[in-house]
Amino acid sequence: MKSKHSALVMLSLVYLFSANNIHAQENTMDHLLPVIPEGWQADGESELFDRESIFQYMNGAGEVYRSYDYKNLLVQRYKKQGEEGVTVELFDMGNPADAYGIFLRNRMSSSVGIGNDSEYRSGYLVFWKGKYFASVFTYAETDEARNAVFTLAQSIADKIEDSGARPALMKYLPEKNKNEYSERYFHLYTDLNERYFLSDENILNLGDETRCALASYTISDEEVFLLIVQYPDPAHARSALAEFRTTYFRTDDETSFLQLENSLWTAATETSDKLIFVFDAPDKEEANSLLLNCVRLIKGDKDE
Amino acid sequence: MNKKPVFTRRDFLVGSSATAAGMALGIPNNLKLDSPVSPKTSRAVLVRDPDAMSADGKYNGPVLSRMLDDAVTALLETSSADEAWSQLLNKDDKLGIKTNIWRFLYTPKELEQAVRSRALNVGIPSDNIAIADRGIHSNPQFTEATALINMRPLRTHHWSGIGGCLKNYITFHSQPWTWHGDSCADLGGIWKLPVCAGKTRLNVLVVLRPLFYGIGPHHFDPEHSWFYNGLLVSQDPVALDSLGVKLLEEKRNVFFDKPPKGGTSAKHVQYAETRHGVGLADLSKIDLVKIGYTEDSLL
Description:
heterodimer, A: alpha+beta, elongated, B: alpha/beta
């Protein structure tokens, strides 16, 4: 009886310790800090910023991350004698789709093979893996600093266990004529405007609950945009389409195609909980073709 | 109930000077936003000197000091820089110089010291001159200042369209992010806060090496900035920001074969005039005086 009681106490203590440990990991991301390359050392303590305090670190730029499901940012600096230093920024974006989305924001070049996808440019290395987006950078790109950037980034990626997956919405973007590195994934109209300015107001009713996939295409030397918006349900999609027609097409009828003041074509259609838009097509036929190709992908047909 | 007019891309296509491919940063002046403006003009000066910066990005302090002196002299139409600064400041002032420390494009120290030097010349004691960017909402040297000089570099901004004179005062508020709503539409309202309202004697929009297109994780890429080697000065911050918007638009039109189709509209500049009455955004009402060299002026 006594030994059974002792065992229960022991089990309780083990449980409590484990629970506290898990809680500690939820409150800090330090376990993801990289192995430090030889010759380098941590420069000060790591800092953790949440959705409110991120502005203390990066001022208004914090809004970029808050437009996604951003949770926390871990910052750690590293130094070495004779070097400018390297900074690690590790963002918990809440879910893999949003980590992917923030990674795509400034995508311009090919992968450097870290995490799920990555990019390196002039001292900056960014990658995404699981629900995390990481930025590892130096302001003075020496060979030593560049090597440290890559080493630190790879170490962080190795520590992230869950790989996560691209949002399913992206596979509905047709490949034909698509511009390389033009894909974007986001939620808010302000992010749409960054790539293709539509309106100062939220005329598509975008928000935290909507998911957007955007890509640009070159068709007859014109940059054409395809936007897919997934709404919580078909009713929301229909309502958003009606508002778009009223506000942008300036009609209350079921117009799907309109040639705008610059002679380029805009098209819109709905399928279940999704709206599909084509902007700046050179002619109506190309707008329709791109629209239909996207609809086919959504319905499970092959990409043409 | 009157519905607020919705402003779309189609209004740009009709009303702006943007190319068919490109996207304007500013809202076209022909569009009516909120209430009409009062019929007056604002004076601004653009001064440029090719020796203001070296090719490797170093600032030439003496040249910048002279440029600033020339600009305020032209702005106030005085016979000398001493006279101009004496009109701007007096020895009893407590001066706050609001700068900007954004790592990639900060207010040059040389300019800060040029203003400080002029303030000392006017007779303001050293202890009554403060230079800062952050924390000014609780810094007595700013909260109790009788005079402010607003000075920062021009750049694009992913949230507000541009970072200019109007936005530079956001740190006068203890929670700057509360002004981010609707792409920072109401930044002009900050200028009416008691802590800074009516105190600004001079605005300097530093256009030595403006950023005209933001990209990358920190919104800065040196490839999208250029040596313009200028300073824009005025007592009207809205006028300077409106000129700044125009400058960045024109540079994008020149730089890109096909200017980007996206971009945050800097509507806070027009709203600063039409909602908040802080100054004039209408370019047709801004009297721009250009001094120094004028090659590739874009304005």
